[in-house]
Amino acid sequence: MAVYFLSFLVCFALRAEAFALEPRLTWQESEISLTRFQVQDVYNYSTLLLSDDNNVLYIGAREVIFAVNSQNISEKKQEAYWKVTEVKNEECSRKGKSKQTECLNYIRVLQPFNESALFVCGTNAFQPVCDILELNSFKLAGKNEDGRGRCPFDPAQSYTSVMVDGDLYSGTSFTFLGSEPIICRNSQHLSYLRTEYAVPWLNEPRFVHADVIRAPENNPDGDDDKVYFFFTEVSVEYEFFNKLLIPRIARVCKSDQGGLRTLQKKWTTFLKARMICHSPENNLIFNVVNDVFILKLREPVIYGVFTSHLNNVGMSAVCSYSLSTVEDVFTKGKYMQSATVEQAHTKWVQFNGEIPKPRPGACINNEAKAMNYTSSLNLPDKTLQFVKDHPLMDDSVAPIGKRPKLVHQNVTYTQIVVDQVTALDGNTYDVMFISTDKGMLHKAVSHDMDMRIIEEIVLFPDHQAIQTLLLSDKQAKRYIYAGSSTEVVQTPVAFCEKLASCAECILTRDPYCAWHKGKNSCVNILAESNTDRLLIQSLNGDSSHCPGMFPEWVFGC
Ligand SMILES: *[C@@H]1O[C@H](CO)[C@@H](O)[C@H](O)[C@H]1NC(C)=O
Ligand SMILES: *[C@@H]1O[C@H](CO)[C@@H](O)[C@H](O)[C@H]1NC(C)=O
Ligand SMILES: *[C@@H]1O[C@H](CO)[C@@H](O)[C@H](O)[C@H]1NC(C)=O
Ligand SMILES: *[C@@H]1O[C@H](CO)[C@@H](O)[C@H](O)[C@H]1NC(C)=O
Ligand SMILES: *[C@@H]1O[C@H](CO)[C@@H](O)[C@H](O)[C@H]1NC(C)=O
Questions:
Q1: What is the pLDDT of residues 287-304, one digit of tens each?
Q2: CB 435 within 8 A of CB 413
Q3: Mean pLDDT across the chain, nearest whole number?
Q4: What are 220-274's pLDDT values in tens digits?
Q5: Ligand 3 pocket residue status of 371, Cβ below 6 Å
Q6: Closest ligand 5 atom, residue 156 Cα
Q7: Which ligand is nearest the CA of 369, by number?
Q8: Nearest ligand, CA of residue 378?
Q9: Centre of ligand 1 from the C-alpha of residue 521, in Å
Q10: C-beta neighbour count of 10 within 10 angstroms
Q11: What is the Å distance from ligand 4's center to 410 Cα?
Q12: 369 CB under 6 A from ligand 3?
């Protein structure tokens, strides 16, 4: 009995330790006056695009696009209304959709097109359209191109897109009913490509993010630029009493041109794998990815925020992945294949047969070129047929450190952005900004292996869900922009100047903040030079170097 009790206690202590502590500091709305943007009768500020060169933030809301000053978003510069016609609105409502909400035009794609124009798409009363927004006049060109595959029909459906060299790569659904998921490329000079409409390729996905990773120049494999997609979908490989959701990473190669006969106008490089976000200490499995941010360093790092539909409702986690781990899975991992067991029941198992060459799903790299395959159009049928049937890898992508960076109870994390700061100790720190579905922003920094939430910022006092998060890190002053159903809010990355004493300044352990001995105030180090060595920063929270403090050794601890 006693032993049981003890082990229960130990276990409890361990479990408690595995969760992130509550933030040390919470900034309420009254303490920090954040800049907000909101226009009466305009809702769903869901798409944000930053143009750092001219200090503009573009905001896509319901039936309107705004340009605001990115240094002060409450300064509106321009606006372009893009309303559905009365006819379209009627037509949509006759199909059983709500006239006042669903049958409107929700801006879902805002991407740079060229120096003087943006590429924009909207749901347009369940008939998605795309257009060009001229930036000088801030008027739509009126192209009204068919937006299917680039923009969802339904404003409530998930979507993601990224513009790469003028081509739009998007993940969305292709039909009115939203039943046909698609990842496609729309290009002016490359061929249109899309995923096969088949369960093994995409199975009820909820898209969260897409981004490009450029291949290093003159890389030894002759590899290509790749576009990555992140989504949660219904698993085909696990049997479960009901639908089991699973987080995925998928990728395609930029110079894919589809196959000539097999996989004509389809991706020949579409491969996907499971992402693992699992806390081994307490056996928590996070199986829903809500957002991803890629820190594009020389060795890129993928940060994801996860929740769970399984045992641990009400908990969220952050897991990070190195791109090389991801690439190893795609370039060296095993594939899965479906096998029919009994009648009409398929089971997914590891493929152990001979893999055709060139390797299925690989970009046209040096290996393929050495075999005289210069384009996906002349790849052998065996390779193409194999990709068509085996888009799913058996190996999964494990997180850095084999566990989450952070697990937090009683929150639902929705979005993440990650900044990097070089602190006065010369080390570079990743600072994560993570939003919740209750209007909060958590700021977390990793010290050694230990990730802690150093601050919590109340962005929306009415607890609105944060739907979009954007980091501006190109300018001297760094900001985070957050969009919700009713407004956009702008916050600086740190509130150093609000910390009144040296001890408080040091105890926040914020890599942006240091105590300035000359000014006798807490300052943001990005705005100061430390040539006169007046700044004190100690990210382990040791405030003994503060003026008038005793060094720790005086007390012998
Ligand atoms: C931002 O712009 C608004 C509207 O022009 C103005 O009232 C406000 O003072 C500005 N805020 C700052 C910090 O400059
Ligand atoms: C940008 O694209 C638009 C629409 O195709 C075109 O009218 C405009 O001339 C282009 N601008 C530049 C700078 O290339
Ligand atoms: C590739 O093509 C070249 C030139 O046509 C030829 O000399 C070479 O033998 C070919 N290599 C293979 C592996 O087929
Ligand atoms: C969860 O958070 C809510 C507010 O965000 C709070 O009211 C509630 O007490 C918390 N529950 C637990 C178990 O911590
Ligand atoms: C749009 O905003 C309204 C008003 O806040 C909200 O009720 C609705 O859920 C939002 N719709 C979408 C698709 O985000």
A1: 999 999 999 988 999 999
A2: yes
A3: 90
A4: 888 899 999 999 999 998 877 778 999 999 999 999 999 999 999 999 999 999 9
A5: yes
A6: 13
A7: 3
A8: 3
A9: 25
A10: 10
A11: 6
A12: no
pLDDT per residue over 37-73, tens digit each? 999 999 999 999 999 788 999 999 999 999 999 999 9
Place of tokens 């299925």: 360
- Measured CA distances, 507 to 137, 190, 542 (Å): 50, 54, 7
Report the nearest-CA residue for atom 9 of ligand 2. Answer: 116
Nearest CA-CA partner of 158 in 193, 120, 195, 202? 202
Collapse the DSSP code of 41 into the 3-class scheme (helix H, G, I; strand E, B; otherwise coil) and give the result. coil
CB 59 within 8 A of CB 488: yes
- Centre of ligand 1 to C-alpha 466, Å, is 23
DSSP class of 283: T
**Residue-level pLDDT at 311:** 65
Between strands 521-524 and 513-516, the pairing is antiparallel
What are the pLDDT digits (tens) for 324-341?
Answer: 999 999 999 999 999 877
Phi first, then psi: give them for residue 320, nearest 5 degrees. -125, 150
d(CA 91, CA 156): 19
User: 76: CA distance to ligand 1 center in Å?
Assistant: 10
Distance CA 117, CA 107 (A): 16
Calpha distance 31→71 (Å, rounded): 20
What pTM value is reported for the model?
0.92
What's the Cα-to-Cα distance from 477 to each of 33, 71, 328, 512, rounded to whole Å?
A: 16, 8, 38, 11
Residue 157 CB partners (closer than 8 Å, separation 6+): 172, 173, 178
Rg (the chain; Cα; Å): 25
Give dist(CA 487, CA 183) in Å, integer: 30
CA nearest neighbour of 251 among 198, 349, 327: 327
Nearest CA to ligand 3 atom 8: 372
pLDDT for position 155: 95
Q: What share of the chain is helix, strand, coil (3-state, %, to 5)?
A: 15, 40, 45
Distance (Å) from CA 372 to ligand 3 centroid: 6
Q: Whose CA is nearest to atom 6 of ligand 4?
A: 410
Least confident of 51-55, 64-68, 116-120, 497-501: 51-55
Which of 56, 47, 68, 174 has its CA nearest to residue 119? 47
Ligand nearest to the Cα of 438, by number:
4
Judge residue 218's burial from the number of C-beta atoms within 10 Å of its C-beta, 0-12 exposed, 13-18 middle, 19 or more buried.
exposed
Question: Ligand 2 pocket, 137 CB below 6 A?
Answer: no
Task: Kindly tell me if the per-residue pLDDT of 385 is higher than 90.
Answer: yes
Pair 120, 114: CB distance under 8 Å? no
How large is the average pLDDT for residues 424-430?
93
Distance from Cα 55 to the centre of ligand 2, integer Å = 21
Does the beta carbon of 156 sit less than 6 angstroms from any atom of ligand 5? yes
CA distance 207 to 229: 8
Q: Which residue owns the Cα nearest ligand 2 atom 8?
A: 116
